[in-house]
Amino acid sequence: VEFGDRDYAIGKVRALCELGHEPVLSAVVKLRLRDGTTDSLPAIAEATLDLNGVAVRAHASADTMPEAIDQLDQRLSRRLRRHRKRLEDRRHESEPEPAPAHPGYADLSADDRTVVRHKSLAMRPMSVEEAADEMDLLDHGFYLYLDADHGIDRVVYRNGDSGLRVVPRVDGEALPGRTRPPIHPAPLVLNHLPLNEAEVLLDEGDEPFVFFAEPDTSRGQVLYRRFDGHYGLITPAV
Fold first, then answer.
1. What angle do helix axes 65-92 and 3-16 make, rounded to 10 degrees?
2. Which positions fall inside the Sigma 54 modulation/S30EA ribosomal protein C-terminal domain (predicted)?
3. With bands split at pLDDT 50, 70 and 90, how would you rate the model's confidence at 136?
4. 3-state SS assignment for residue 132
5. Is 62 left (phi over 0), alpha (psi -120 to 50) or beta?
6. Gap between the Cα atoms of 81 and 56, Å rounded
7. Could you tell me the pTM of the whole model?
8. 16 to each of 46, 74, 124, 132, how far by Cα in Å?
9. Taking 90 as the threshold, does the pLDDT of residue 153 lie above it?
10. pLDDT, tens only, 156-183
11. 3-state secondary structure at position 134
Protein backbone atom coordinates (compact mmCIF):
# COMPACT_ATOMS: atom_id res chain seq x y z
CA VAL A 1 0.00 0.00 0.00
CA GLU A 2 1.39 3.41 -0.96
CA PHE A 3 2.17 6.03 1.68
CA GLY A 4 -0.16 8.48 -0.03
CA ASP A 5 -3.08 6.10 0.43
CA ARG A 6 -2.18 5.63 4.10
CA ASP A 7 -2.13 9.39 4.67
CA TYR A 8 -5.40 9.79 2.77
CA ALA A 9 -7.12 7.16 4.94
CA ILE A 10 -5.75 8.59 8.18
CA GLY A 11 -6.98 12.05 7.23
CA LYS A 12 -10.46 10.76 6.43
CA VAL A 13 -10.78 8.82 9.69
CA ARG A 14 -9.36 11.65 11.77
CA ALA A 15 -12.01 14.00 10.37
CA LEU A 16 -14.75 11.48 11.22
CA CYS A 17 -13.73 11.21 14.86
CA GLU A 18 -15.78 14.35 15.60
CA LEU A 19 -19.05 12.74 14.44
CA GLY A 20 -19.44 10.17 17.19
CA HIS A 21 -20.16 12.75 19.93
CA GLU A 22 -18.20 10.53 22.33
CA PRO A 23 -14.51 10.32 23.31
CA VAL A 24 -12.54 8.31 20.74
CA LEU A 25 -10.38 5.96 22.78
CA SER A 26 -8.69 4.40 19.76
CA ALA A 27 -8.87 4.24 15.98
CA VAL A 28 -7.51 1.39 13.86
CA VAL A 29 -7.27 1.64 10.07
CA LYS A 30 -6.24 -1.31 7.89
CA LEU A 31 -5.51 -1.15 4.16
CA ARG A 32 -4.62 -4.18 2.09
CA LEU A 33 -4.60 -5.51 -1.46
CA ARG A 34 -5.86 -8.98 -2.25
CA ASP A 35 -3.30 -11.36 -3.71
CA GLY A 36 -3.69 -12.35 -7.34
CA THR A 37 -5.03 -10.52 -10.37
CA THR A 38 -8.44 -12.19 -10.77
CA ASP A 39 -10.21 -10.33 -7.98
CA SER A 40 -12.53 -7.67 -9.35
CA LEU A 41 -12.26 -5.54 -6.20
CA PRO A 42 -8.72 -6.00 -4.90
CA ALA A 43 -8.41 -2.92 -2.66
CA ILE A 44 -9.76 -3.32 0.88
CA ALA A 45 -10.09 -0.62 3.55
CA GLU A 46 -11.24 -1.25 7.13
CA ALA A 47 -11.61 0.96 10.18
CA THR A 48 -12.62 0.45 13.81
CA LEU A 49 -13.28 3.34 16.21
CA ASP A 50 -13.64 2.81 19.95
CA LEU A 51 -16.18 5.42 21.06
CA ASN A 52 -16.00 5.39 24.84
CA GLY A 53 -16.13 1.59 24.85
CA VAL A 54 -18.47 1.11 21.87
CA ALA A 55 -16.85 -0.28 18.73
CA VAL A 56 -18.00 1.28 15.44
CA ARG A 57 -16.70 -0.54 12.37
CA ALA A 58 -16.83 -0.23 8.61
CA HIS A 59 -15.33 -2.12 5.69
CA ALA A 60 -15.16 -1.43 1.95
CA SER A 61 -13.57 -2.84 -1.19
CA ALA A 62 -13.06 -1.28 -4.62
CA ASP A 63 -10.91 -1.35 -7.76
CA THR A 64 -8.41 1.14 -6.33
CA MET A 65 -7.37 2.02 -2.81
CA PRO A 66 -8.55 5.67 -2.97
CA GLU A 67 -11.99 4.43 -4.08
CA ALA A 68 -12.08 1.92 -1.21
CA ILE A 69 -11.10 4.66 1.26
CA ASP A 70 -13.85 6.95 -0.06
CA GLN A 71 -16.44 4.18 0.36
CA LEU A 72 -15.11 3.47 3.84
CA ASP A 73 -15.46 7.16 4.68
CA GLN A 74 -19.11 7.17 3.56
CA ARG A 75 -20.05 4.02 5.46
CA LEU A 76 -18.24 4.98 8.64
CA SER A 77 -19.84 8.42 8.48
CA ARG A 78 -23.34 6.89 8.28
CA ARG A 79 -22.62 4.63 11.23
CA LEU A 80 -21.20 7.42 13.36
CA ARG A 81 -24.16 9.69 12.64
CA ARG A 82 -26.55 6.87 13.51
CA HIS A 83 -24.62 6.22 16.74
CA ARG A 84 -24.73 9.91 17.62
CA LYS A 85 -28.49 10.10 16.96
CA ARG A 86 -29.11 7.13 19.24
CA LEU A 87 -27.17 8.81 22.04
CA GLU A 88 -29.08 12.06 21.59
CA ASP A 89 -32.43 10.25 21.53
CA ARG A 90 -31.59 8.50 24.79
CA ARG A 91 -30.60 11.76 26.46
CA HIS A 92 -33.84 13.46 25.39
CA GLU A 93 -36.07 10.69 26.72
CA SER A 94 -37.50 11.46 30.15
CA GLU A 95 -38.27 7.80 30.82
CA PRO A 96 -36.91 4.81 28.95
CA GLU A 97 -39.53 2.96 26.96
CA PRO A 98 -39.68 -0.81 27.20
CA ALA A 99 -38.43 -2.66 24.16
CA PRO A 100 -41.32 -3.62 21.88
CA ALA A 101 -42.27 -7.26 21.98
CA HIS A 102 -41.33 -9.31 18.95
CA PRO A 103 -44.49 -9.69 16.88
CA GLY A 104 -43.74 -13.29 15.93
CA TYR A 105 -45.06 -14.92 12.80
CA ALA A 106 -48.73 -14.76 11.88
CA ASP A 107 -50.58 -18.06 12.22
CA LEU A 108 -51.15 -18.99 8.59
CA SER A 109 -51.61 -22.51 7.28
CA ALA A 110 -49.01 -23.84 4.86
CA ASP A 111 -51.63 -24.14 2.10
CA ASP A 112 -52.37 -20.41 2.34
CA ARG A 113 -48.75 -19.24 2.28
CA THR A 114 -47.30 -17.81 -0.90
CA VAL A 115 -44.43 -15.60 -2.08
CA VAL A 116 -45.78 -12.07 -1.70
CA ARG A 117 -42.48 -10.21 -2.06
CA HIS A 118 -39.73 -10.94 -4.60
CA LYS A 119 -36.57 -8.83 -4.70
CA SER A 120 -34.02 -9.25 -7.49
CA LEU A 121 -30.63 -7.85 -6.50
CA ALA A 122 -27.73 -6.70 -8.68
CA MET A 123 -25.00 -8.11 -6.47
CA ARG A 124 -21.49 -6.71 -6.76
CA PRO A 125 -18.63 -8.88 -5.47
CA MET A 126 -17.66 -8.27 -1.84
CA SER A 127 -15.91 -9.98 1.05
CA VAL A 128 -17.76 -11.74 3.86
CA GLU A 129 -16.82 -8.93 6.24
CA GLU A 130 -18.15 -6.28 3.88
CA ALA A 131 -21.39 -8.29 3.54
CA ALA A 132 -21.70 -8.35 7.33
CA ASP A 133 -21.26 -4.57 7.35
CA GLU A 134 -24.02 -4.18 4.75
CA MET A 135 -26.30 -6.40 6.83
CA ASP A 136 -25.63 -4.20 9.87
CA LEU A 137 -26.29 -0.99 7.93
CA LEU A 138 -29.61 -2.35 6.67
CA ASP A 139 -30.46 -3.80 10.10
CA HIS A 140 -31.32 -7.15 8.50
CA GLY A 141 -31.00 -10.63 9.94
CA PHE A 142 -29.28 -12.04 6.83
CA TYR A 143 -27.67 -10.80 3.63
CA LEU A 144 -27.26 -12.53 0.25
CA TYR A 145 -24.07 -11.55 -1.57
CA LEU A 146 -21.55 -12.60 -4.23
CA ASP A 147 -18.28 -13.57 -2.54
CA ALA A 148 -15.33 -11.78 -4.15
CA ASP A 149 -12.76 -14.25 -2.85
CA HIS A 150 -14.47 -17.44 -4.02
CA GLY A 151 -16.85 -16.34 -6.79
CA ILE A 152 -19.93 -17.98 -5.23
CA ASP A 153 -23.24 -16.80 -3.81
CA ARG A 154 -23.27 -16.85 -0.01
CA VAL A 155 -25.41 -15.73 2.91
CA VAL A 156 -24.12 -14.11 6.09
CA TYR A 157 -26.61 -14.10 8.95
CA ARG A 158 -27.15 -13.68 12.68
CA ASN A 159 -27.63 -16.91 14.57
CA GLY A 160 -29.59 -15.52 17.53
CA ASP A 161 -26.81 -15.15 20.11
CA SER A 162 -25.08 -12.05 18.66
CA GLY A 163 -22.83 -14.32 16.61
CA LEU A 164 -22.48 -14.28 12.83
CA ARG A 165 -22.52 -17.24 10.45
CA VAL A 166 -21.79 -17.63 6.74
CA VAL A 167 -23.05 -20.31 4.35
CA PRO A 168 -21.85 -22.28 2.46
CA ARG A 169 -18.66 -23.31 4.20
CA VAL A 170 -15.42 -23.05 2.22
CA ASP A 171 -12.80 -25.57 3.32
CA GLY A 172 -9.62 -23.96 4.60
CA GLU A 173 -11.09 -20.45 4.64
CA ALA A 174 -9.68 -18.09 7.29
CA LEU A 175 -12.75 -16.10 8.34
CA PRO A 176 -12.23 -12.63 9.86
CA GLY A 177 -12.58 -12.19 13.59
CA ARG A 178 -10.24 -9.42 14.70
CA THR A 179 -12.27 -6.34 13.79
CA ARG A 180 -15.81 -7.52 14.62
CA PRO A 181 -17.61 -10.38 16.36
CA PRO A 182 -16.11 -13.50 14.77
CA ILE A 183 -17.79 -14.91 11.66
CA HIS A 184 -18.08 -18.70 11.75
CA PRO A 185 -18.99 -21.21 9.03
CA ALA A 186 -22.55 -22.48 9.31
CA PRO A 187 -23.74 -26.09 9.21
CA LEU A 188 -26.31 -25.10 6.57
CA VAL A 189 -25.75 -26.02 2.92
CA LEU A 190 -26.87 -24.72 -0.46
CA ASN A 191 -29.88 -26.89 -1.32
CA HIS A 192 -30.52 -27.63 -5.01
CA LEU A 193 -34.30 -27.89 -5.27
CA PRO A 194 -37.29 -26.12 -6.86
CA LEU A 195 -39.09 -23.28 -5.12
CA ASN A 196 -42.05 -25.38 -3.97
CA GLU A 197 -39.70 -27.82 -2.21
CA ALA A 198 -37.82 -24.90 -0.65
CA GLU A 199 -41.16 -23.75 0.79
CA VAL A 200 -41.72 -27.19 2.33
CA LEU A 201 -38.20 -27.19 3.77
CA LEU A 202 -38.76 -23.75 5.29
CA ASP A 203 -42.09 -24.83 6.81
CA GLU A 204 -40.59 -27.95 8.36
CA GLY A 205 -37.40 -26.36 9.71
CA ASP A 206 -36.58 -23.97 12.52
CA GLU A 207 -34.46 -21.54 10.50
CA PRO A 208 -35.94 -18.19 9.37
CA PHE A 209 -34.75 -18.77 5.79
CA VAL A 210 -33.69 -21.43 3.27
CA PHE A 211 -30.65 -20.89 1.05
CA PHE A 212 -31.24 -22.78 -2.20
CA ALA A 213 -30.63 -22.90 -5.95
CA GLU A 214 -33.19 -24.18 -8.43
CA PRO A 215 -32.05 -27.25 -10.43
CA ASP A 216 -31.59 -25.30 -13.69
CA THR A 217 -29.29 -22.67 -12.16
CA SER A 218 -26.34 -22.51 -9.80
CA ARG A 219 -27.22 -19.05 -8.42
CA GLY A 220 -28.12 -18.93 -4.75
CA GLN A 221 -31.53 -17.66 -3.64
CA VAL A 222 -33.05 -16.99 -0.23
CA LEU A 223 -36.61 -17.89 0.72
CA TYR A 224 -37.50 -16.37 4.09
CA ARG A 225 -40.37 -16.12 6.53
CA ARG A 226 -42.35 -12.90 6.73
CA PHE A 227 -44.13 -11.80 9.88
CA ASP A 228 -47.45 -11.82 8.01
CA GLY A 229 -47.05 -15.59 7.59
CA HIS A 230 -46.20 -15.52 3.88
CA TYR A 231 -42.83 -15.91 2.13
CA GLY A 232 -40.32 -13.46 0.75
CA LEU A 233 -37.86 -14.39 -2.01
CA ILE A 234 -34.49 -12.79 -2.81
CA THR A 235 -32.72 -13.71 -6.05
CA PRO A 236 -29.66 -12.40 -7.92
CA ALA A 237 -30.43 -10.24 -10.94
CA VAL A 238 -29.65 -12.01 -14.21
1. 10
2. 112-164, 192-233
3. confident
4. helix
5. beta
6. 11
7. 0.62
8. 14, 10, 26, 21
9. yes
10. 998 766 578 899 988 888 776 554 567 8
11. helix
